[in-house]
Structures are given as structure tokens and as C-alpha cells.
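ok so I'm stuck.
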Amino acid sequence: MPTLLLVDGSSYLYRAFHAMPDLRNKAGEPTGAVYGVINMLRRLAADYKAGSSASTP
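replied:
not stuck anymore, here's the structure
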């Protein structure tokens, strides 16, 4: 049976927002939280090799 990962997106975003440094793009927009969430999701997918994933808002 394939593995399904369910992720609480709000908690990942909160965690990334407060854990990442103040990263910004060339336009000065904050990007640290997005970068952090993407890295956490990539790590989760690599660790569990899930067939599918879903996130809550």
C-alpha cells in the first residue's frame, strides 16, 4: 500500500517563519518562510518516499 503524507501547512509555515533568518529577494520581499517550508517538505518527502501528499491550509 502506498504511503500518504498529511502535512499541517499552518504549523510548517509558522515554524519556518520563526526559525528562518530574514531572507529577501532582489525586490526586497520576504522569502525566508517559503524557503523554509519548501526545504521541510522536500526533507519529509525524501525521508518517507511517499506516493502522495496533501497539506492543510
